[in-house]
């Protein structure tokens, strides 16, 4: 089975993200390592919300099959912070995009 790199990009921030994420911040799952892009830090809470999906997605399971998207190579997940009125924070929606060789 192929192993794809996955670009993880902030698609939307709802409320106030405690980690300071902004739309467009991104990092790359390259093989088995996460590489920040442009100084983006990786929030452990956000990582927990996506880690169980990153492995099958990077190994070729489609986003449709995982229930996280309408296309095979693009899916969406969010961090587990529910935001107001439950916490003082907010939630972040991340876009997962498989990087394909051209």
What does this entry look like structurally?
The chain is α+β, with helices and mostly antiparallel strands and 102 residues long. The chain has one domain. The chain contains two helices and five strands. A five-stranded antiparallel sheet has the order 3-2-1-5-4, with helices on one face. Strand 2 and strand 3 form a beta hairpin. The longest helix is centred in the middle third of the chain and has 15 residues.
Strand content: 35-45%
SSE run:
EEEHHEE
Give the end-to-end Cα distance, rounded to a whole number of Å.
Answer: 18 Å
Q: What kind of sheet is the major sheet?
A: 5 strands, antiparallel
Overall geometry comes to globular
Output the structural class.
Answer: alpha+beta
Write down the oligomeric state. single chain
Instruction: Kindly give the count of domains.
Output: 1
Averaged pLDDT = 91
Number of helices: 2
The low-confidence runs, each spanning 5 or more residues with pLDDT under 50, are none
Provide a brief overview of the structure.
The protein is of the alpha+beta class.
For this entry, give a set of tags:
102 residues, alpha+beta, 2 helices, 19% helix, 35% strand
Q: What is the element layout, followed by pairings?
A:
Layout: E1 5-15, E2 26-30, E3 33-37, H1 44-58, H2 63-66, E4 74-78, E5 90-99
Antiparallel strand pairs: 1-2, 1-5, 2-3, 4-5
């Amino acid at each position: 089975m192929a192993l794809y790199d996955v670009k993880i990009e902030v698609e939307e921030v709802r409320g106030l993200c405690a980690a300071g994420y902004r739309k467009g911040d991104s990092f790359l799952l390259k093989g088995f390592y996460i590489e920040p892009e442009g100084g983006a830090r990786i929030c452990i809470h956000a990582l927990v919300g996506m880690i169980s999906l990153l492995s099958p997605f990077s190994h070729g399971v489609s986003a449709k099959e995982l229930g996280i998207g309408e296309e095979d190579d693009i899916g969406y997940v969010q961090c587990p912070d529910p935001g107001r009125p439950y916490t003082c924070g907010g939630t972040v929606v991340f876009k997962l995009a498989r990087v394909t060789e051209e």
